[in-house]
Queue: 3 jobs
Job 1
Amino acid sequence: MNIVKALEKHSRLFWGIVGGELVLVLGVIDYLTGYEISFSLFYLAPIVLVTWFVSRRLGIMFSIFSAITWYFADALSGQTYSLPAIYLWNTLIRFGFFIIVTLLLSALREKLRTEEIFARTDFVTGAVNTRYFYNLAHMEISRSRRYQHPFTLAYIDLDNFKAINDRFGHGTGDMVLKTVASALQHHLRDTDIVARFGGDEFALLLTETGQEAAKVVISKIHSSLMAEMQKNSWPVTFSIGVVTYVAVPHTVDNVVKIADELMYSVKSGTKNGVRYSTYTG
């Protein structure tokens, strides 16, 4: 899988050029070796490459290109048939074979990509799920240790969320969660991470962010969240614990636990507030 990920970094133009060159090379070899040796299997290589790394449409185009190349290689190599129409028939059969492979491979690729997205995304909100968050947080911890930069984790709990489900139903509850996730993402950078933890808890990982910068961002987020709740007449508030890590605990569990405990101190007190802390080891 690591090899596939590395190959996916190449551009579509790169794979288009590589695929085209492969078809031409195969056509030349097919012609030079004569009609007695079949090269049908090898024509699948460029088709598979462009279908997987570019698109189904280009895979279909290469299926046509490969079938035509095979036709000319056969015709020029001296292969003869009892009827000229057999050339066309064989070309169509080859094209059909290539198309079937292209469509099956394209469907497999889309299914794998969909499963990959579902494996790291919360189904309701579209935010990162807990498991994928832990992977990303682990990488951020490693970067923090290496480059000696701080990062901030905000742990958010929705106060009175159970009352939303009880009073309005789970459909409205899901709408609240989606609204919260959208509002959180709106105020963050592409490098920051929004994750849903449990039923009504979210975590924000602010990469390379000190406490002063975190205060500015979290203040805006809290105001935005409250405005969304008031606009929709949802009786939900937010208890938030924000920890800036200058030193880094040994595990992601510890990083999350410290922020969770700070959030709980808000929730068990006045609720609807934000508390900040700096972890220095």
Job 2
Amino acid sequence: MFAAGQFLLGTFASNCSGGMSVTKVPERWNNSWDNNLKLARLLDDAGIDFMLPIARWIGYGGETNFHGGVLETMTWATGLLAHTKNINVFATVHTTANHPVVVAKQIATVDQISKGRIGLNIVAGWNRPEYEALGLTLPVDHETRYAYAEEWFDVVKALWQREEAFDFDGQFFSLKQVLGDPRPSRKVPILNAAGSGQGRAFAVRNADFLFTPAIDLARSTEEIAEIKAQSSAAGRSVGVLTFSHVVCRPTEKEARDYLQYFGQDNADWAAVDNLVNLQFAHAHSFPHDLLALIRDRMAAGHGGFPLVGTPEQVAEGLIALHAAGFSGTTLSFVDYAEEFPYFRDTVLPILEARGIRRPAPAREAIAA
């Protein structure tokens, strides 16, 4: 699915109102279909590897009701893949809100539409208000949520692998004579965000990429080494991805001033506090001993690694992530479609010169 031997770059949450920035500024990301399609075409032409959405069913409140408007991820991915040529697009799916037999067939269908460019981001679930909005019951303990997700994915894998109808009798699913037809044309890349021991064990067993925050790079280096060792011991190879927020300007002062403007002076602090409180109450994606320290990062980029400064400084931040052992990172901007071209023209060439990215074919053709 992805070009081997390079640091992967994607975007995150462009299907969500506000993207990753919990801000009130008027130029904050408008997640309309037209804007997403414009962005996808820009990314595709630039050789960006993937787009990753967030699945949300209710917002975080505050003045902006951050993430209150969200494009559903399976249909979003299908539409973008039908209008692009090379970029890979993930669908993000909550296991408890989506039946595995339905999801297996949806992904197999999109695989045909995209000629093998669809991926699946599996979410075991953590946000109690979303469960309540859907009339579902959130399992009390983290272990049960991941046991359910494990069996859910066992069903999906069986549907993608078996050529004859079969019965499935598990703790959570009892299925009679199910058959996956069509099946994906190749192995579908699986992504899972995990911070807890149970989550990481699930990712090591099932995912191609584990998605985790980069708050302290020294800590990340140790965690990545542990994950690599665990996956190797299990006979698998699991890459580790993180997420970053970009504020790239010609001078460091311009970048810092803009960060202050949108991420401090005009942050939607009520929505930020709702987000942080829910993470503390229900989620294990962020280490709780660090979560209280990154309230500012939550406003600027949902807790993502800050890439703030000149093109050279932003590039150095990405190179530092690569050196820490990350296989890649997602990128977010206050306004993705407006800000990405400057990143494309100024940062990507530095990464290519430093050997962690290769030029996109379109960029090579233009240069020639």
Job 3
Amino acid sequence: MAAVTQHLSTRHLLGIKDLTAEDIHLIFHTSDNFKEVINRPIRKVPSLRDVTIANLFFENSTRTRISFELAEKRLSADVVNFSASSSSVKKGETLLDTVNNILSMKVDMVVMRHPAPCAPKFLSEHIDANIINAGDGTHEHPTQALLDAFSMQEKVGRLTGKKVAIFGDILHSRVALSNIFCLQKLGAEVTVCGPPTLIPKHIERLGVHVSYNRDETLAWCDIANILRIQLERQDIKYFPSLREYAQYFGVDRRALDRTGKELVVMHPGPINRGVEISSDVADSEHSIILQQVENGVAVRMAILYLLAART
């Protein structure tokens, strides 16, 4: 592994594209330390005791929001939670007005999820706080990609030369794009697999392979990262039915057994059981889905800690 640097090269986490491989290794090294913290009897450290963090979620979220809030509290930060559904955004207040009002309360860091691509970047150009992108539209979800790669590395070792397949709704997924950027920076080989209607045009230009055959892709890969079918983002029908999708692209036990090898199976959640993944795979010895959830807190603690050090 490359030598671990001591500071991130950026004061925001807007996307994986902005990170170097050294940044990623530093985040992983720091995550290892924080994973020890959250597994000991006293799971709290005073690292961010004087830091105030605002969680701004303009889209619904359960896992990401809880994971960030838990990470912040484990670091002893002061936490302000903001939901657009119960705010003045509903009355016409602009994004910048909302954030400036919150910053006037002396907030140091902002964790933001927003339906508009590049909304966190817009904020970073107009306010002085550290910005962490918790998902912007169908663009990026950098902390999910980092925890995914950290979980992979924990399971199989260095990712250089490893073959990772991303299955599912690539077209509407912010997780897919961030995963591709992160895995490539760590030296992995990436294939995306799904029906042609859910694979973005010209995605090969990102240096990934494209497959429309589930069984061939499972036989090729070492790790299968299975994404959710995002029906809420689909304005037209991209495949005939969920049953047909499950038949041809869902990962079930029979499909895994046909590979004749041990595969690592992942899913960022929430899971549509019986559609993109069956319960006997999600709950099997192949799955590291629960490890992803645990690692999410440690990785987000590391990111918050490292960005606070850059202030």
